[in-house]
Design the sequence.
Protein backbone atom coordinates (compact mmCIF):
# COMPACT_ATOMS: atom_id res chain seq x y z
CA UNK A 1 0.00 0.00 0.00
CA UNK A 2 1.43 3.41 -0.99
CA UNK A 3 2.49 5.88 1.69
CA UNK A 4 0.41 8.98 2.06
CA UNK A 5 1.60 12.20 0.10
CA UNK A 6 2.91 15.18 2.20
CA UNK A 7 1.01 18.39 1.87
CA UNK A 8 3.13 21.69 2.17
CA UNK A 9 2.42 23.99 5.13
CA UNK A 10 1.68 27.68 4.33
CA UNK A 11 1.11 29.43 1.02
CA UNK A 12 2.42 27.85 -2.10
CA UNK A 13 5.41 29.66 -3.77
CA UNK A 14 5.29 29.73 -7.42
CA UNK A 15 8.69 30.18 -9.05
CA UNK A 16 8.68 31.00 -12.74
CA UNK A 17 11.62 29.59 -14.60
CA UNK A 18 13.38 32.14 -16.81
CA UNK A 19 13.55 31.30 -20.41
CA UNK A 20 16.62 32.14 -22.49
CA UNK A 21 16.09 34.42 -25.51
CA UNK A 22 16.03 32.57 -28.72
CA UNK A 23 19.15 34.53 -30.10
CA UNK A 24 21.30 34.24 -26.98
CA UNK A 25 23.39 31.46 -28.36
CA UNK A 26 24.06 33.39 -31.55
CA UNK A 27 25.33 36.44 -29.58
CA UNK A 28 27.74 34.39 -27.57
CA UNK A 29 29.13 32.82 -30.66
CA UNK A 30 29.49 36.25 -32.35
CA UNK A 31 31.33 37.80 -29.38
CA UNK A 32 33.68 34.86 -29.19
CA UNK A 33 34.31 35.14 -32.91
CA UNK A 34 35.07 38.88 -32.68
CA UNK A 35 37.46 38.32 -29.80
CA UNK A 36 39.24 35.62 -31.69
CA UNK A 37 39.37 37.81 -34.82
CA UNK A 38 40.79 40.74 -32.86
CA UNK A 39 43.45 38.57 -31.31
CA UNK A 40 44.33 37.12 -34.68
CA UNK A 41 44.53 40.63 -36.23
CA UNK A 42 46.70 41.87 -33.37
CA UNK A 43 48.93 38.89 -33.79
CA UNK A 44 49.21 39.42 -37.50
CA UNK A 45 49.99 43.14 -36.97
CA UNK A 46 52.62 42.25 -34.41
CA UNK A 47 54.19 39.83 -36.85
CA UNK A 48 54.06 42.52 -39.57
CA UNK A 49 55.57 45.21 -37.36
CA UNK A 50 58.25 43.05 -35.79
CA UNK A 51 59.02 41.14 -38.91
CA UNK A 52 58.27 42.68 -42.25
CA UNK A 53 58.18 46.43 -41.31
CA UNK A 54 60.69 46.55 -38.50
CA UNK A 55 63.47 48.03 -40.62
CA UNK A 56 61.24 50.58 -42.35
CA UNK A 57 59.67 51.77 -39.09
CA UNK A 58 63.06 52.07 -37.45
CA UNK A 59 64.25 54.18 -40.38
CA UNK A 60 61.15 56.35 -40.10
CA UNK A 61 61.74 56.86 -36.39
CA UNK A 62 65.34 57.80 -37.08
CA UNK A 63 64.28 60.26 -39.75
CA UNK A 64 61.98 61.95 -37.28
CA UNK A 65 64.92 62.79 -35.05
CA UNK A 66 67.40 63.65 -37.86
CA UNK A 67 68.60 67.23 -37.99
CA UNK A 68 70.30 69.09 -40.83
CA UNK A 69 73.62 70.75 -39.97
CA UNK A 70 75.51 73.20 -42.21
CA UNK A 71 79.25 72.63 -42.56
CA UNK A 72 81.08 75.98 -42.81
CA UNK A 73 83.55 76.64 -45.64
CA UNK A 74 86.83 78.41 -44.91
CA UNK A 75 87.07 81.79 -46.67
CA UNK A 76 90.19 82.19 -48.76
CA UNK A 77 92.96 84.67 -47.94
CA UNK A 78 94.09 87.70 -49.93
CA UNK A 79 97.87 87.84 -50.33
CA UNK A 80 100.28 90.41 -51.73
CA UNK A 81 102.81 89.54 -54.44
CA UNK A 82 105.28 88.28 -51.82
CA UNK A 83 102.80 86.02 -50.03
CA UNK A 84 102.08 88.44 -47.18
CA UNK A 85 98.52 88.04 -45.93
CA UNK A 86 96.43 91.18 -46.38
CA UNK A 87 93.19 89.46 -45.34
CA UNK A 88 92.56 86.05 -43.79
CA UNK A 89 89.97 84.27 -41.63
CA UNK A 90 90.27 82.89 -38.11
CA UNK A 91 87.71 80.67 -36.38
CA UNK A 92 85.75 82.17 -33.50
CA UNK A 93 82.43 81.86 -31.69
CA UNK A 94 79.42 84.03 -31.00
CA UNK A 95 77.71 83.41 -27.63
CA UNK A 96 73.94 83.67 -27.30
CA UNK A 97 71.21 83.03 -24.71
CA UNK A 98 67.45 82.33 -24.51
CA UNK A 99 66.18 84.37 -21.52
CA UNK A 100 62.50 83.44 -21.69
CA UNK A 101 63.18 79.73 -22.12
CA UNK A 102 65.60 79.79 -19.17
CA UNK A 103 63.06 81.56 -16.95
CA UNK A 104 60.42 78.99 -17.88
CA UNK A 105 62.80 76.09 -17.21
CA UNK A 106 63.66 77.46 -13.75
CA UNK A 107 59.98 78.01 -12.93
CA UNK A 108 59.16 74.44 -13.97
CA UNK A 109 62.03 73.06 -11.90
CA UNK A 110 60.94 74.98 -8.78
CA UNK A 111 57.33 73.77 -9.18
CA UNK A 112 58.46 70.15 -9.51
CA UNK A 113 60.67 70.65 -6.48
CA UNK A 114 57.71 71.92 -4.46
CA UNK A 115 55.54 69.00 -5.62
CA UNK A 116 58.22 66.55 -4.58
CA UNK A 117 58.85 65.33 -8.11
CA UNK A 118 62.53 66.28 -7.98
CA UNK A 119 65.09 66.79 -5.26
CA UNK A 120 67.49 69.69 -4.89
CA UNK A 121 67.68 73.34 -3.95
CA UNK A 122 65.37 76.02 -5.40
CA UNK A 123 66.79 78.19 -8.18
CA UNK A 124 66.51 81.96 -8.70
CA UNK A 125 66.76 83.40 -12.23
CA UNK A 126 68.32 86.68 -11.12
CA UNK A 127 70.93 84.90 -8.99
CA UNK A 128 71.77 82.47 -11.77
CA UNK A 129 72.20 85.21 -14.40
CA UNK A 130 74.27 87.29 -12.00
CA UNK A 131 76.67 84.37 -11.46
CA UNK A 132 76.69 83.69 -15.17
CA UNK A 133 77.53 87.31 -16.07
CA UNK A 134 80.35 87.44 -13.51
CA UNK A 135 81.89 84.19 -14.75
CA UNK A 136 81.67 85.15 -18.41
CA UNK A 137 83.08 88.65 -17.93
CA UNK A 138 86.09 87.12 -16.18
CA UNK A 139 86.69 84.65 -18.99
CA UNK A 140 86.24 87.26 -21.71
CA UNK A 141 88.93 89.45 -20.18
CA UNK A 142 87.26 92.82 -20.51
CA UNK A 143 85.82 92.35 -24.00
CA UNK A 144 82.38 93.02 -22.54
CA UNK A 145 81.49 94.21 -19.03
CA UNK A 146 79.61 92.25 -16.40
CA UNK A 147 76.88 94.88 -16.44
CA UNK A 148 76.39 94.65 -20.19
CA UNK A 149 76.16 90.89 -20.03
CA UNK A 150 73.71 90.98 -17.14
CA UNK A 151 71.43 93.33 -19.07
CA UNK A 152 71.40 90.99 -22.06
CA UNK A 153 70.92 87.84 -19.98
CA UNK A 154 67.87 89.34 -18.27
CA UNK A 155 66.39 90.85 -21.40
CA UNK A 156 62.72 90.02 -22.03
CA UNK A 157 63.39 88.23 -25.32
CA UNK A 158 63.40 84.77 -26.81
CA UNK A 159 66.96 85.02 -28.10
CA UNK A 160 69.86 87.46 -27.63
CA UNK A 161 73.45 87.57 -28.87
CA UNK A 162 75.82 88.25 -25.99
CA UNK A 163 79.24 88.69 -27.57
CA UNK A 164 81.12 88.02 -30.81
CA UNK A 165 84.74 87.14 -31.61
CA UNK A 166 85.18 84.68 -28.74
CA UNK A 167 88.05 82.23 -28.98
CA UNK A 168 86.77 78.65 -29.35
CA UNK A 169 88.60 77.46 -26.21
CA UNK A 170 87.08 80.25 -24.11
CA UNK A 171 83.61 79.53 -25.49
CA UNK A 172 84.06 75.87 -24.59
CA UNK A 173 84.97 76.75 -20.98
CA UNK A 174 81.90 78.96 -20.63
CA UNK A 175 79.62 76.31 -22.06
CA UNK A 176 81.01 73.63 -19.75
CA UNK A 177 80.17 75.82 -16.77
CA UNK A 178 76.83 77.04 -18.13
CA UNK A 179 75.36 74.64 -20.72
CA UNK A 180 72.44 77.03 -21.35
CA UNK A 181 74.83 79.39 -23.17
CA UNK A 182 74.59 78.84 -26.92
CA UNK A 183 77.79 78.86 -29.00
CA UNK A 184 77.62 79.58 -32.74
CA UNK A 185 80.45 79.09 -35.23
CA UNK A 186 81.98 82.22 -36.73
CA UNK A 187 84.99 82.96 -38.90
CA UNK A 188 86.31 86.44 -38.23
CA UNK A 189 88.12 88.35 -40.97
CA UNK A 190 91.52 89.71 -40.01
CA UNK A 191 93.29 92.62 -41.76
CA UNK A 192 96.80 92.75 -40.30
CA UNK A 193 97.82 95.75 -42.41
CA UNK A 194 94.78 97.71 -41.20
CA UNK A 195 94.33 100.51 -43.78
CA UNK A 196 97.07 99.22 -46.11
CA UNK A 197 95.45 98.51 -49.49
CA UNK A 198 92.02 98.75 -47.84
CA UNK A 199 90.51 100.55 -50.85
CA UNK A 200 91.63 97.61 -53.00
CA UNK A 201 90.85 94.73 -50.64
CA UNK A 202 87.61 96.14 -49.23
CA UNK A 203 86.01 94.35 -46.29
CA UNK A 204 84.05 91.19 -45.48
CA UNK A 205 81.68 90.68 -42.58
CA UNK A 206 78.88 88.40 -41.39
CA UNK A 207 75.55 88.73 -43.10
CA UNK A 208 72.37 86.68 -43.00
CA UNK A 209 71.39 84.40 -45.86
CA UNK A 210 68.27 85.99 -47.38
CA UNK A 211 66.79 82.54 -47.98
CA UNK A 212 67.30 81.38 -44.42
CA UNK A 213 67.76 83.93 -41.65
CA UNK A 214 69.19 81.27 -39.34
CA UNK A 215 72.23 80.92 -41.58
CA UNK A 216 75.04 83.45 -41.39
CA UNK A 217 78.02 83.66 -43.69
CA UNK A 218 81.14 85.76 -43.99
CA UNK A 219 80.67 87.71 -47.23
CA UNK A 220 82.30 90.64 -48.99
CA UNK A 221 80.82 94.10 -48.55
CA UNK A 222 83.28 96.18 -50.61
CA UNK A 223 86.40 95.98 -52.79
CA UNK A 224 87.85 92.65 -53.91
CA UNK A 225 86.14 90.98 -50.94
CA UNK A 226 82.85 91.78 -52.68
CA UNK A 227 83.92 91.56 -56.33
CA UNK A 228 85.57 88.15 -55.89
CA UNK A 229 83.23 86.92 -53.16
CA UNK A 230 82.23 83.71 -54.97
CA UNK A 231 85.81 82.49 -55.26
CA UNK A 232 86.81 83.57 -51.74
CA UNK A 233 83.73 82.33 -49.88
CA UNK A 234 83.67 78.74 -51.11
CA UNK A 235 80.50 76.64 -50.66
CA UNK A 236 78.85 75.52 -47.45
CA UNK A 237 78.51 71.77 -46.89
CA UNK A 238 75.61 69.91 -45.27
CA UNK A 239 74.94 66.71 -43.36
CA UNK A 240 72.08 64.98 -41.57
CA UNK A 241 72.67 63.81 -37.98
CA UNK A 242 70.54 62.15 -35.29
CA UNK A 243 70.13 64.00 -32.00
CA UNK A 244 69.31 62.76 -28.53
CA UNK A 245 65.76 63.62 -27.55
CA UNK A 246 65.51 65.78 -24.44
CA UNK A 247 69.24 66.42 -24.28
CA UNK A 248 69.46 69.83 -25.97
CA UNK A 249 69.89 68.29 -29.38
CA UNK A 250 73.23 66.60 -28.69
CA UNK A 251 74.45 64.81 -31.81
CA UNK A 252 74.63 61.02 -31.55
CA UNK A 253 78.09 59.92 -32.70
CA UNK A 254 78.17 57.81 -35.82
CA UNK A 255 74.78 58.96 -37.12
CA UNK A 256 76.14 61.31 -39.80
CA UNK A 257 74.59 60.68 -43.20
CA UNK A 258 73.99 62.39 -46.55
CA UNK A 259 77.22 64.29 -46.03
CA UNK A 260 78.02 66.97 -48.60
CA UNK A 261 81.47 68.31 -47.67
CA UNK A 262 82.13 72.04 -47.59
CA UNK A 263 84.30 73.42 -50.39
CA UNK A 264 86.79 75.96 -49.04
CA UNK A 265 87.33 79.23 -50.87
CA UNK A 266 90.28 80.09 -53.08
CA UNK A 267 93.11 82.42 -52.04
CA UNK A 268 93.76 85.50 -54.16
CA UNK A 269 97.32 86.51 -55.03
CA UNK A 270 97.64 90.20 -55.85
CA UNK A 271 100.23 92.11 -57.84
CA UNK A 272 100.35 94.61 -54.96
CA UNK A 273 103.49 94.91 -52.84
CA UNK A 274 102.17 95.56 -49.32
CA UNK A 275 105.26 97.48 -48.16
CA UNK A 276 105.25 99.69 -51.25
CA UNK A 277 101.50 100.19 -50.92
CA UNK A 278 101.95 101.39 -47.34
CA UNK A 279 104.68 103.81 -48.39
CA UNK A 280 102.66 105.24 -51.27
CA UNK A 281 99.57 105.78 -49.10
CA UNK A 282 101.61 107.64 -46.48
CA UNK A 283 103.58 109.72 -48.97
CA UNK A 284 100.47 110.69 -50.95
CA UNK A 285 98.40 111.62 -47.89
CA UNK A 286 101.27 113.74 -46.56
CA UNK A 287 101.75 115.55 -49.89
CA UNK A 288 98.02 116.17 -50.32
CA UNK A 289 98.03 117.75 -46.87
CA UNK A 290 100.99 119.98 -47.66
CA UNK A 291 99.46 121.00 -50.99
CA UNK A 292 96.20 121.79 -49.18
CA UNK A 293 94.41 119.75 -51.81
CA UNK A 294 90.90 118.35 -51.69
CA UNK A 295 92.23 114.89 -52.53
CA UNK A 296 94.66 112.88 -54.59
CA UNK A 297 95.46 109.49 -56.13
CA UNK A 298 98.62 107.73 -57.30
CA UNK A 299 99.64 104.46 -58.94
CA UNK A 300 102.88 102.53 -59.46
CA UNK A 301 102.93 100.06 -62.35
CA UNK A 302 105.42 97.60 -63.78
CA UNK A 303 106.65 99.20 -66.98
CA UNK A 304 106.80 95.87 -68.82
CA UNK A 305 103.67 93.93 -67.91
CA UNK A 306 101.29 96.50 -66.45
CA UNK A 307 101.06 94.86 -63.03
CA UNK A 308 99.94 97.32 -60.34
CA UNK A 309 102.44 97.39 -57.49
CA UNK A 310 100.60 100.07 -55.53
CA UNK A 311 97.40 102.06 -55.98
CA UNK A 312 96.61 104.72 -53.40
CA UNK A 313 94.18 107.46 -52.45
CA UNK A 314 94.74 110.12 -49.83
CA UNK A 315 91.68 108.90 -47.89
CA UNK A 316 91.22 105.32 -46.75
CA UNK A 317 89.70 103.29 -43.89
CA UNK A 318 90.59 100.50 -41.50
CA UNK A 319 88.54 97.35 -42.25
CA UNK A 320 89.59 95.79 -38.93
CA UNK A 321 87.51 98.33 -37.00
CA UNK A 322 83.80 99.16 -37.05
CA UNK A 323 82.13 102.39 -38.15
CA UNK A 324 83.65 102.78 -41.59
CA UNK A 325 83.22 106.08 -43.40
CA UNK A 326 81.45 105.25 -46.70
CA UNK A 327 83.23 108.15 -48.43
CA UNK A 328 86.61 106.65 -47.54
CA UNK A 329 85.69 103.14 -48.70
CA UNK A 330 85.64 103.94 -52.43
CA UNK A 331 88.59 103.85 -54.79
CA UNK A 332 88.86 107.20 -56.63
CA UNK A 333 92.06 106.06 -58.33
CA UNK A 334 89.90 103.89 -60.59
CA UNK A 335 86.45 105.45 -60.22
CA UNK A 336 87.10 109.19 -60.51
CA UNK A 337 88.07 110.61 -63.89
CA UNK A 338 89.62 114.07 -64.33
CA UNK A 339 91.04 116.28 -67.06
CA UNK A 340 94.78 115.49 -67.20
CA UNK A 341 96.20 118.72 -68.58
CA UNK A 342 99.62 118.73 -70.23
CA UNK A 343 100.36 115.11 -69.30
CA UNK A 344 98.15 114.34 -72.31
CA UNK A 345 100.62 116.08 -74.66
CA UNK A 346 102.39 112.75 -75.01
CA UNK A 347 99.66 111.76 -77.50
CA UNK A 348 100.67 114.59 -79.84
CA UNK A 349 104.35 113.73 -79.37
CA UNK A 350 103.73 110.09 -80.35
CA UNK A 351 101.72 111.12 -83.40
CA UNK A 352 104.24 113.72 -84.56
CA UNK A 353 107.20 111.33 -84.32
CA UNK A 354 105.32 108.27 -85.63
CA UNK A 355 104.08 110.18 -88.70
CA UNK A 356 107.49 111.79 -89.35
CA UNK A 357 105.95 115.22 -88.93
CA UNK A 358 108.98 116.38 -87.00
CA UNK A 359 112.12 115.17 -85.22
CA UNK A 360 113.36 115.96 -81.68
CA UNK A 361 115.72 118.79 -82.62
CA UNK A 362 113.67 120.47 -85.33
CA UNK A 363 113.06 124.14 -84.53
CA UNK A 364 109.59 125.71 -84.60
CA UNK A 365 108.71 129.37 -84.34
CA UNK A 366 106.17 129.35 -81.57
CA UNK A 367 104.12 132.43 -80.73
CA UNK A 368 102.57 133.16 -77.35
CA UNK A 369 99.08 132.32 -78.63
CA UNK A 370 97.31 130.54 -81.46
CA UNK A 371 93.78 130.86 -82.85
CA UNK A 372 91.74 127.64 -82.95
CA UNK A 373 88.29 127.97 -84.52
CA UNK A 374 86.43 130.61 -82.51
CA UNK A 375 88.88 130.84 -79.63
CA UNK A 376 92.50 131.74 -78.87
CA UNK A 377 94.79 129.43 -76.88
CA UNK A 378 97.72 130.89 -74.93
CA UNK A 379 100.85 129.46 -73.39
CA UNK A 380 101.13 129.37 -69.60
CA UNK A 381 103.76 132.14 -69.71
CA UNK A 382 103.88 135.32 -71.74
CA UNK A 383 106.36 135.38 -74.60
CA UNK A 384 106.84 136.56 -78.13
CA UNK A 385 107.96 134.27 -80.98
CA UNK A 386 110.23 131.56 -79.58
CA UNK A 387 112.46 129.18 -81.58
CA UNK A 388 111.50 126.03 -79.66
CA UNK A 389 112.82 122.63 -80.61
CA UNK A 390 110.31 119.78 -80.79
CA UNK A 391 111.75 118.51 -77.52
CA UNK A 392 111.48 122.03 -76.10
CA UNK A 393 107.79 122.26 -76.99
CA UNK A 394 107.05 119.34 -74.68
CA UNK A 395 109.73 119.89 -72.03
CA UNK A 396 108.58 123.49 -71.54
CA UNK A 397 104.94 122.44 -72.02
CA UNK A 398 104.00 124.89 -74.74
CA UNK A 399 100.28 124.73 -75.55
CA UNK A 400 100.80 126.68 -78.74
CA UNK A 401 103.63 124.47 -80.01
CA UNK A 402 101.67 121.33 -79.14
CA UNK A 403 98.61 122.54 -81.08
CA UNK A 404 100.80 123.40 -84.07
CA UNK A 405 102.04 119.81 -84.20
CA UNK A 406 98.58 118.37 -83.44
CA UNK A 407 97.09 120.22 -86.40
CA UNK A 408 99.65 118.59 -88.67
CA UNK A 409 98.84 115.23 -87.12
CA UNK A 410 95.10 115.73 -87.73
CA UNK A 411 91.99 114.80 -85.73
CA UNK A 412 91.61 111.31 -87.21
CA UNK A 413 95.07 110.07 -86.33
CA UNK A 414 94.88 111.79 -82.94
CA UNK A 415 91.54 110.10 -82.20
CA UNK A 416 92.91 106.71 -83.23
CA UNK A 417 95.88 107.10 -80.90
CA UNK A 418 93.60 107.90 -77.96
CA UNK A 419 91.76 104.64 -78.59
CA UNK A 420 94.97 102.62 -78.76
CA UNK A 421 96.12 104.22 -75.53
CA UNK A 422 92.92 103.05 -73.84
CA UNK A 423 91.43 106.47 -73.11
CA UNK A 424 87.64 106.33 -72.95
CA UNK A 425 87.63 102.58 -72.19
CA UNK A 426 87.85 100.77 -68.86
CA UNK A 427 91.26 99.21 -68.30
CA UNK A 428 89.81 95.97 -66.89
CA UNK A 429 92.20 96.16 -63.93
CA UNK A 430 89.91 93.90 -61.92
CA UNK A 431 88.53 96.43 -59.44
CA UNK A 432 84.92 97.46 -58.99
CA UNK A 433 83.52 100.86 -59.92
CA UNK A 434 86.08 101.57 -62.63
CA UNK A 435 85.36 104.61 -64.80
CA UNK A 436 86.02 104.46 -68.55
CA UNK A 437 86.89 108.14 -68.56
CA UNK A 438 85.48 110.23 -71.37
CA UNK A 439 86.51 111.24 -74.85
CA UNK A 440 83.96 113.17 -76.92
CA UNK A 441 82.68 110.99 -79.79
CA UNK A 442 84.62 111.80 -82.94
CA UNK A 443 81.44 112.81 -84.74
CA UNK A 444 80.75 115.49 -82.15
CA UNK A 445 84.10 117.28 -82.37
CA UNK A 446 83.80 120.95 -83.24
CA UNK A 447 86.61 123.21 -84.38
CA UNK A 448 87.45 124.22 -80.84
CA UNK A 449 87.44 120.60 -79.59
CA UNK A 450 90.77 120.01 -81.26
CA UNK A 451 92.04 123.11 -79.49
CA UNK A 452 91.39 121.40 -76.14
CA UNK A 453 92.15 117.69 -76.45
CA UNK A 454 95.88 117.87 -77.36
CA UNK A 455 96.57 120.00 -74.28
CA UNK A 456 94.58 117.72 -71.96
CA UNK A 457 91.31 119.61 -71.60
CA UNK A 458 87.88 118.45 -72.77
CA UNK A 459 88.60 114.75 -72.10
CA UNK A 460 88.79 112.79 -68.86
CA UNK A 461 90.77 109.81 -67.58
CA UNK A 462 91.64 108.03 -64.34
CA UNK A 463 95.11 108.02 -62.83
CA UNK A 464 95.35 104.38 -63.92
CA UNK A 465 94.61 105.27 -67.55
CA UNK A 466 97.06 108.16 -67.43
CA UNK A 467 99.84 105.89 -66.18
CA UNK A 468 98.87 103.38 -68.87
CA UNK A 469 99.76 105.87 -71.63
CA UNK A 470 103.27 106.20 -70.22
CA UNK A 471 103.52 102.44 -69.71
CA UNK A 472 103.08 102.03 -73.47
CA UNK A 473 105.94 104.47 -74.10
CA UNK A 474 108.10 102.73 -71.47
CA UNK A 475 107.35 99.30 -73.01
CA UNK A 476 108.58 100.14 -76.52
CA UNK A 477 105.16 101.11 -77.80
CA UNK A 478 103.10 98.20 -76.43
CA UNK A 479 100.38 98.99 -73.91
CA UNK A 480 99.60 96.16 -71.49
CA UNK A 481 96.30 96.80 -69.64
CA UNK A 482 96.89 96.90 -65.88
CA UNK A 483 95.79 94.20 -63.49
CA UNK A 484 95.74 93.78 -59.73
CA UNK A 485 95.04 90.03 -59.28
CA UNK A 486 97.77 87.70 -60.51
CA UNK A 487 96.37 84.28 -59.59
CA UNK A 488 93.94 82.20 -57.57
CA UNK A 489 95.16 79.35 -55.36
CA UNK A 490 92.89 76.36 -54.71
CA UNK A 491 92.53 74.80 -51.23
CA UNK A 492 94.79 72.02 -52.52
CA UNK A 493 97.52 74.53 -53.37
CA UNK A 494 97.11 74.60 -57.15
CA UNK A 495 97.93 78.03 -58.56
CA UNK A 496 95.61 79.23 -61.33
CA UNK A 497 97.01 82.35 -63.07
CA UNK A 498 94.55 85.06 -64.01
CA UNK A 499 94.04 85.46 -67.77
CA UNK A 500 96.62 87.92 -69.03
CA UNK A 501 95.22 91.01 -70.75
CA UNK A 502 95.76 91.31 -74.48
CA UNK A 503 98.58 93.78 -75.25
CA UNK A 504 97.96 96.63 -77.69
CA UNK A 505 100.58 97.90 -80.12
CA UNK A 506 100.31 101.69 -80.04
CA UNK A 507 103.42 102.76 -81.95
CA UNK A 508 106.60 101.04 -83.04
CA UNK A 509 109.55 100.64 -80.66
CA UNK A 510 111.63 103.33 -82.37
CA UNK A 511 108.89 105.94 -81.96
CA UNK A 512 108.37 105.00 -78.32
CA UNK A 513 112.09 105.29 -77.52
CA UNK A 514 112.37 108.63 -79.31
CA UNK A 515 109.47 110.09 -77.34
CA UNK A 516 110.79 108.57 -74.11
CA UNK A 517 114.15 110.23 -74.70
CA UNK A 518 112.51 113.56 -75.60
CA UNK A 519 110.55 113.60 -72.35
CA UNK A 520 113.75 113.27 -70.32
CA UNK A 521 114.16 117.00 -70.90
CA UNK A 522 111.14 117.69 -68.69
CA UNK A 523 113.40 117.22 -65.64
CA UNK A 524 116.42 118.90 -67.26
CA UNK A 525 117.94 121.43 -64.86
CA UNK A 526 119.71 124.09 -66.84
CA UNK A 527 120.07 127.80 -67.07
CA UNK A 528 116.90 129.41 -68.30
CA UNK A 529 115.51 129.01 -70.92
CA UNK A 530 116.65 125.38 -71.30
CA UNK A 531 115.23 123.97 -68.06
CA UNK A 532 112.14 121.78 -68.10
CA UNK A 533 108.91 122.18 -66.12
CA UNK A 534 109.51 119.17 -63.88
CA UNK A 535 113.03 119.70 -62.53
CA UNK A 536 112.09 118.64 -58.94
CA UNK A 537 111.24 115.16 -60.29
CA UNK A 538 114.87 114.48 -61.20
CA UNK A 539 116.70 111.72 -59.30
CA UNK A 540 120.46 111.78 -59.08
CA UNK A 541 122.06 108.85 -60.92
CA UNK A 542 118.95 107.93 -62.91
CA UNK A 543 117.47 109.04 -66.18
CA UNK A 544 113.89 110.16 -65.63
CA UNK A 545 111.33 110.63 -68.38
CA UNK A 546 108.01 112.30 -67.58
CA UNK A 547 105.57 115.14 -67.94
CA UNK A 548 103.95 117.71 -65.70
CA UNK A 549 100.31 118.69 -66.06
CA UNK A 550 97.93 121.42 -64.94
CA UNK A 551 94.26 121.43 -65.94
CA UNK A 552 91.59 123.94 -65.07
CA UNK A 553 88.45 122.46 -63.54
CA UNK A 554 85.10 123.36 -65.02
CA UNK A 555 83.01 125.42 -62.64
CA UNK A 556 79.36 124.38 -63.00
CA UNK A 557 78.09 127.49 -61.20
CA UNK A 558 80.01 129.89 -63.43
CA UNK A 559 79.52 127.82 -66.58
CA UNK A 560 83.20 128.09 -67.52
CA UNK A 561 86.65 126.85 -66.56
CA UNK A 562 87.76 128.07 -63.14
CA UNK A 563 90.85 130.22 -62.64
CA UNK A 564 91.50 128.89 -59.13
CA UNK A 565 90.44 125.23 -59.20
CA UNK A 566 92.88 122.84 -60.88
CA UNK A 567 93.99 119.27 -61.28
CA UNK A 568 97.75 118.87 -60.94
CA UNK A 569 99.31 115.77 -62.53
CA UNK A 570 102.61 114.07 -63.15
CA UNK A 571 103.44 110.88 -65.03
CA UNK A 572 106.97 109.50 -65.11
CA UNK A 573 109.19 106.56 -66.07
CA UNK A 574 112.04 105.17 -63.93
CA UNK A 575 114.65 104.77 -65.31
CA UNK A 576 114.15 106.13 -68.81
CA UNK A 577 117.07 104.20 -70.33
CA UNK A 578 115.87 100.81 -68.97
CA UNK A 579 112.27 101.25 -67.80
CA UNK A 580 111.22 99.37 -64.69
CA UNK A 581 108.37 101.39 -63.18
CA UNK A 582 105.77 103.93 -64.27
CA UNK A 583 104.28 106.35 -61.75
CA UNK A 584 101.10 108.41 -62.14
CA UNK A 585 100.02 111.15 -59.71
CA UNK A 586 96.92 113.38 -59.53
CA UNK A 587 96.14 116.15 -57.02
CA UNK A 588 92.57 117.44 -56.86
CA UNK A 589 92.18 121.17 -56.18
CA UNK A 590 95.45 121.95 -54.43
CA UNK A 591 95.95 125.53 -53.33
CA UNK A 592 97.37 126.52 -56.70
CA UNK A 593 97.01 130.29 -56.52
CA UNK A 594 99.07 131.85 -53.73
CA UNK A 595 99.53 128.51 -51.98
CA UNK A 596 102.58 126.39 -51.08
CA UNK A 597 104.96 125.04 -53.76
CA UNK A 598 103.37 121.56 -53.45
CA UNK A 599 100.12 123.09 -54.73
CA UNK A 600 101.65 123.91 -58.10
CA UNK A 601 103.43 120.67 -59.02
CA UNK A 602 103.43 116.95 -58.24
CA UNK A 603 107.03 116.59 -59.47
CA UNK A 604 108.52 116.59 -55.94
CA UNK A 605 106.25 113.72 -54.93
CA UNK A 606 107.38 111.77 -57.99
CA UNK A 607 110.99 112.29 -56.89
CA UNK A 608 110.25 110.84 -53.44
CA UNK A 609 108.45 107.84 -54.93
CA UNK A 610 111.20 107.22 -57.50
CA UNK A 611 113.88 107.41 -54.80
CA UNK A 612 112.02 104.87 -52.68
CA UNK A 613 111.59 102.53 -55.65
CA UNK A 614 115.26 102.75 -56.60
CA UNK A 615 116.38 101.82 -53.09
CA UNK A 616 113.73 99.18 -52.38
CA UNK A 617 114.19 97.28 -55.63
CA UNK A 618 117.93 97.89 -56.02
CA UNK A 619 117.44 99.43 -59.45
CA UNK A 620 120.86 99.82 -61.14
CA UNK A 621 122.03 103.34 -61.81
CA UNK A 622 121.66 104.59 -65.36
CA UNK A 623 124.73 103.85 -67.45
CA UNK A 624 125.05 107.49 -68.39
CA UNK A 625 123.53 110.80 -67.52
CA UNK A 626 120.78 112.04 -69.81
CA UNK A 627 122.44 114.30 -72.41
CA UNK A 628 121.78 118.01 -72.37
CA UNK A 629 119.21 118.97 -74.99
CA UNK A 630 118.67 122.40 -76.44
CA UNK A 631 115.07 123.45 -75.80
CA UNK A 632 115.24 126.99 -77.15
CA UNK A 633 117.56 127.88 -79.96
CA UNK A 634 119.65 131.00 -79.29
Sequence:
Amino acid sequence: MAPPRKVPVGPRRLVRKKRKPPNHHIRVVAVRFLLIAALVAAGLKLIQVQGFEAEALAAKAERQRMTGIDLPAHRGSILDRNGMALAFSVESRSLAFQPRAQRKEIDTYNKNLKDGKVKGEPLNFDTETENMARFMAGKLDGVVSEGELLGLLRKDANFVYLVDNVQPAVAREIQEEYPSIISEYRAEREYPGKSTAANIIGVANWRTDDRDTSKHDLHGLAGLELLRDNELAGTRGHQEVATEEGNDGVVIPGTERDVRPAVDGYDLELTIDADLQYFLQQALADYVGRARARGGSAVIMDARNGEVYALANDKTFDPSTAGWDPEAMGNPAVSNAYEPGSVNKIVTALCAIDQNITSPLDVHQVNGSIPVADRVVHDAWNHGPLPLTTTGIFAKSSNVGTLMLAQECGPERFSELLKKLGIGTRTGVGLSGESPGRVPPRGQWSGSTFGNLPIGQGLMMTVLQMAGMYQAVANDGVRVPPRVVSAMVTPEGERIPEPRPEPVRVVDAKTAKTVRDMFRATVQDADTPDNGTGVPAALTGYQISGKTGTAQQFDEELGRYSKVKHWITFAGILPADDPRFVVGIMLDQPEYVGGPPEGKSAAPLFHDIASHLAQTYNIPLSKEQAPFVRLVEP
